Amino acid sequence: MARPLRIEYPGAWYHVTCRGNERRAIFRDERDREKFLGIVDETRELFGVEVHGYVLMENHVHLILMTPEGTLQKFMQRLNTSYTVSFNRRHGRSGHLFQGRYKAILIDADSYLLELSRYLHLNPVRVKRYSQRDIEEKVGIIRSYRWSSYRGYVEPRHRERFLTCSPVLEMAGGGDDRKGRRRYREFVLGGIAKDMKITFWEGVRGQAVLGSDEFVEWVFDRFLAKRRVVAKEFPRFRELERGPDTVEEIGREVAGVFQVPEAELRRRRSRYGGARSVFMELCRLCLARKKGLAEIGRELGGVSVSALSQNRARLTTRMERDPRLKEDFERLREAVNQSPRLK
Question: 205 partner at 20 to 30 Å CA-CA among 212, 222, 260, 330?
Answer without folding.
Answer: 260
